[in-house]
């Protein structure tokens, strides 16, 4: 009782202030609902549901052709028994290096910790303390017919 979305392709992020272009891949997304007990009792027609959650899983990469820096990121899915949700590990590499100068671990929707090759350990980022920035979107009447929000406005209205 879950659904998975496998993201194919890549994205490009440009940092105008530094004239840097990053090519990145995306993790897969999963909507989960049932716990381990469901699988055990499914043949007895007994289902014990949990609160649904969204989960990311799979490997991603980020590469900058200008600087040569790159990162390898793994979004870990929750194991069937035990384990934690939303875990992430990553390694960041300098140009032409095979050994990472920084390793990151933690939760992608919480706190991530960095461990540098110098031995220094520090908080890399705490996503819960980050400010929320409201999206800037043109009004529906100013959008073309096939722009996403205009195209899906009826679905969005009915979902709300």
From TrEMBL:
A GO term from the CC aspect: Golgi apparatus
Upper taxonomic lineage: Eukaryota, Metazoa, Chordata, Craniata, Vertebrata
Cited PANTHER family: OXYSTEROL-BINDING PROTEIN-RELATED, OXYSTEROL-BINDING PROTEIN-RELATED PROTEIN 9
GO molecular-function terms, A-Z: sterol binding
Underlying gene: Osbpl9
Record's protein name: OSBL9 protein
InterPro entries, alphabetized: OSBP_sf, Oxysterol-bd
Organism annotation: Eurystomus gularis
Gene3D superfamilies in UniProt: 2.40.160.120
Source organism superkingdom: Eukaryota
TM region(s), chain numbering: none
């Amino acid at each position: 009782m879950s659904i998975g979305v496998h993201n194919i392709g890549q994205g490009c992020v440009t940092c105008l202030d530094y004239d840097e272009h990053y090519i990145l891949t995306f993790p897969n997304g999963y909507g989960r609902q049932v716990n381990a007990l469901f699988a055990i009792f499914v043949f007895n027609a007994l289902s014990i549901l949990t609160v649904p959650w969204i989960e990311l899983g799979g490997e991603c990469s980020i590469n900058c052709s200008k600087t040569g820096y790159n990162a390898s990121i793994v979004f870990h899915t929750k194991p069937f028994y035990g384990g934690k949700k939303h875990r992430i590990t990553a390694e960041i590499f300098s140009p032409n290096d095979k050994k990472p100068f920084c390793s990151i671990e933690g939760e992608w929707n919480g706190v991530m910790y960095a461990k540098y090759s110098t031995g220094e350990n520090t908080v890399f980022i705490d996503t819960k303390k980050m400010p929320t920035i409201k999206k800037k979107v043109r009004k529906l009447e100013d959008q073309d017919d096939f722009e996403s929000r205009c195209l899906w406005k009826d679905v969005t209205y009915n979902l709300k």
